[in-house]
Amino acid sequence: MNNAIEVENLTKYYEKFLAVDHINFTVEQGEIFGFLGPNGAGKTTTQRMLTTLLTPTEGRILINGHDLSRDSYPAKRQIGLVPEESNVYTELTAWDNLMFTASIYRVSRGERAKRAEELLQTFGLWEKRDIKAENFSKGMRRRLSIAMAIIHKPALLFLDEPTPGLDAQSIRAIWELIRRMNVEGTTVFITTHQIEEANQLCGRVAIISHGKIAAIDTPERLKADFRRVQSVEVALESKTSEILEISEVSWDSLPGVTTQVKVGDKMRLYTEDPSALLPRVVQYAESHALRIVSLNTLGPSLEDVFLEITGGQVGTVIKETQENSPRRKGMGGRK
Ligand SMILES: Nc1ncnc2c1ncn2[C@@H]1O[C@H](COP(=O)(O)OP(=O)(O)OP(=O)(O)O)[C@@H](O)[C@H]1O
Ligand SMILES: [Mg+2]
Predict the structure, then answer these.
(1) 209 and 66 assigned to the same domain
(2) Which of the four, 25, 166, 171, 332, has the lowest number of CB atoms within 10 Å?
(3) Last residue of a domain, which of 173, 202, 223?
(4) What is the pLDDT of residues 282-309, one digit of tens each?
(5) Would you state the pLDDT for residue 312?
(6) Strand ordering across the sheet containing 266-271
(7) Closest residue (by CA) to atom 28 of ligand 1?
């Protein structure tokens, strides 16, 4: 099978600033490939180079076998792009946005109306086709932007952070559209800093940080590689008085706990071996007149993996049990 994208040594300097640092990866045809990284990691810069909008400082990009530096025209025709900033013309109706984009992509006149109707129906915008996009909600604009990106039936669709600022229902609707396009044969390259988006959509994920790829694998294998970020989560109450502040309990004496994080009314104890830790927690509770309200083992989440790779902060969090520890912030703050 041909690779949809092959990247060798791809590098971008903005003046002296190294934004993308000699990265290598391939995306197979038919994949949904995620580029996951924090703000400023180099995601948009990479995607702009892959879509011919930006010239690399160094390195080689092949799109469906076409070298972009020599032979970009055939590649361009096979690419659709949903950029980070909206490219919808707000003063035009949904219908006119699609007609205009179709003409730019040289979709034949006969095809344009048929394709636009099909897309507006699929994207739930058919009833709104004659309304100017300036009157659209953010979610509707995003859907229109995706419809515009695929009006010419590209084999390869790039999406740069397709869902920030949208409500849960709109996010799910967009994920569903992306999945459907993929099932119908479109290869998808998506950049995101939302872990759940990568987890939900991507067959493989590259984690990018400071312009470098730190890891590439399936979400499940990335999690498996990070067994050390497994945890046991416990909620306790005192057998004598009802109320117990979880952070008052000292876990320092429990062997095997690498880090402690307070999550709401629970304590999350990170460990490499949850099954060994469980009986110790039970024993500890009994010997301190504490009742266990809940006790769960948690596998590593992609978020744990991401924080471990990009933040490298886990070591500093180890002894922190405060609500404002860096790990706790990461868990709540990125959604
Ligand atoms: N035109 C530019 N000139 C100079 N520096 C730039 C330019 N564009 C981006 N950068 C810098 O390159 C780095 C990577 O930026 P990029 O937009 O690729 O990050 P990103 O991963 O897409 O971030 P975000 O999640 O915020 O969209 C950042 O430090 C940014 O400030
Ligand atoms: Mg970006």
Answers:
(1) yes
(2) 332
(3) 223
(4) 988 888 888 899 999 888 777 778 887 8
(5) 52
(6) 257-263, 266-271, 230-238, 290-298
(7) 40
